[in-house]
Design brief:
Two copies of one chain form a homodimer. With 324 residues, chain A is of the alpha/beta class. The first copy, chain A, is 48% helix and 15% strand. Chain A folds into two domains: 148 residues, Glucose-6-phosphate isomerase like protein, domain 1 (Rossmann fold); 144 residues, Rossmann fold. The radius of gyration of chain A is 19 Å and the shape is globular. At the A-B interface, helix 2, helix 3, helix 4, helix 11 and strand 7 of A face helix 2, helix 3, helix 4, helix 11 and strand 7 of B. Chains A, B: This is SIS domain-containing protein.
């Protein structure tokens, strides 16, 4: 699919360049929304274009007044079938916004709803460069480079060509740790996740998708900057935390939370982006590229817990099984 | 303090009018940040001025590129002493932004850091109109009315004069329910809160301030639009939820989450803004005014639980007791 992907991408990026958006709304639900934290963060730090993240149904009903013909609305649904995200895309398009949608399914309702579409591959045999992780980075840095040309964005686009190798190397590097975590935490009734900056999205995704949805373990993602303003009072010797420590700008927040949590809990696990195998990647890109690596590596933690619990990640009791 | 409050307010609002900000950052930590969801929401729905919420330390380290001389930065710290919020305010001011800070303490570090200050009263003997709840609404609707004059904002400013009575009537109305909830939930190890729109901030505050911080009960706030995209899989007959159901635009999200949760959990408690005593308030203001009412009423739920658990809301193990 790679040539089609590149063709879709270049059309969407050309449209973004032409629109020169006044503001950007990233709109999706659950794991798809979580992945947009990185995209919103990159725009926030690199440009003065206001960028927002909203869960699809909130976007529909809140109806932000800034949404209009000068807006770019980026939506995502893996199946292309999430009703709220399809509807949100229709709402955005009806207001004249430029709509760009990511999904795995061509000709899905989301595909029909959006003006521009970005298809991505899925499954173990395909390359991460053609997955959601790769396509999102290619779109974001492509759009940035079109709107505000910069050698850094061009370098980022080159670096992510190696994304599949980066993922594989890091999954291997953390395989033993992942298994140890899965085994030692399999009977925990609640596990908190923590993160900041763009990585907060991965902490959120791990809490709601892997722990709550797939493993039926109670969880909450705690922003490491917020930890000291309430949540830290539940820290105790037996309360588990899984911290995704960024290599980016907000690392001091993560370090502070780590130092405190380790004093009072015996169950603090830290996945540190500085420990990732970064071969071939420039340091000034660590912050933005760490999010998908956290995604790939943390999935193996969930997989090992699933194995040790005998509760496959595919098991659901409600999702896709009934109307809701 | 009421005449001084009005004087501070009118100076800050005049400065906002003169600045005519290109964007607005609401910056604080924990409960002070949670309260800004309502303020951000009002700007999002009523104007096309981009408005953001960031936890203070994230704001400092992320350093959004949109922050500059055309920005308004609104910060808040009850004590005026929260180091991250003081620093964030200094950063904003150093970049030329107009800085307005709410706090209870005059001449605190935050008071020194901000160009304009809004003092608020505290304690049971003072009037809610002069509290943070009242001052925030007076500032937001005052600023809106200065930037985009509208009879609705003028009516809002009139209505909130009665805030103290509204709070008292509603605390009384829900007193029996609050006690019932506190007694029946006192042994729960985890309680989820839910909300959407501006009320999501109150669900967040209840989770992190009342449950985690003050009562040492595990918790997580779930956005009702996100519930179906992961979190709902942890719903079970014995999992408690406390839903803050808005009377505003996003009510359909709350209704959907309520209907589902009630099918599979026997412990769903709903605090519905439509059941509030709204005497004297126009319907088109319910959405914006419900957030502080949720704040006042939900506090009584926490107070009753504290009583039944024998664990006063003032107890802390870490906060203010050590360096962190």
């Amino acid at each position: 699919m790679s040539s089609i992907h590149a063709e879709y991408l270049s059309k969407a990026i050309a449209a973004v360049k032409q629109k020169n958006p006044k503001n950007i709304y990233f709109v999706a639900c659950g794991g798809s929304m979580a992945y947009m934290y990185n995209q919103q963060y990159i725009f926030d730090v690199e440009t003065d274009i206001p960028a927002f993240i909203l869960s699809s149904n909130e976007f529909i009903h809140r109806s932000p007044k800034g949404l209009g013909p000068d807006s770019l609305v980026v939506s995502c649904s893996h199946s292309g079938n999430t009703p709220e995200t399809v509807e949100a895309t229709k709402v955005a398009r009806s207001k004249g916004a430029l709509t760009v949608a990511y999904s795995h399914e061509e000709n899905s309702p989301l595909w029909q709803a959006a003006e521009y579409n970005l298809h991505y591959d899925w499954g173990p045999e395909s390359d991460a460069y053609e997955h959601k992780a790769g396509m999102a980075l290619r779109f974001i840095f492509g759009a940035l480079n079109a709107l505000r040309p910069n050698e850094k964005y061009a370098r980022a686009l080159e670096s992510i060509k190696d994304l599949n190798n980066i993922f594989e190397r890091n999954k291997k590097k953390f395989a033993a740790e992942a298994d140890k975590w899965g085994a030692s935490h399999k009977r925990e009734p609640i596990i908190y996740t923590m993160g900041s900056g763009p990585v907060y999205g991965e902490a959120y995704a791990f809490a709601i998708c892997f722990l709550q949805e797939m493993l039926w373990v109670h969880s909450s993602s705690i922003h490491t900057g917020e930890y000291f303003h309430g949540p830290f009072e539940i820290t105790d010797y037996d309360v588990p935390f899984l911290l995704f420590k960024t290599a980016g700008e907000t690392r001091p927040l993560d370090e502070r939370a780590e130092n405190f949590a380790k004093k009072f809990s015996q169950k603090v696990t830290v996945l540190d982006a500085k420990d990732f195998d970064w071969t071939g990647i420039d340091k000034d890109l660590y912050s933005y590229l760490s999010t998908p690596i956290f995604g790939a590596v943390s999935r193996t933690y969930a997989e090992r817990m699933a194995e040790h619990r005998g509760h496959p990640l595919t098991v659901r009791r409600y999702m896709w099984k009934m109307d809701y």
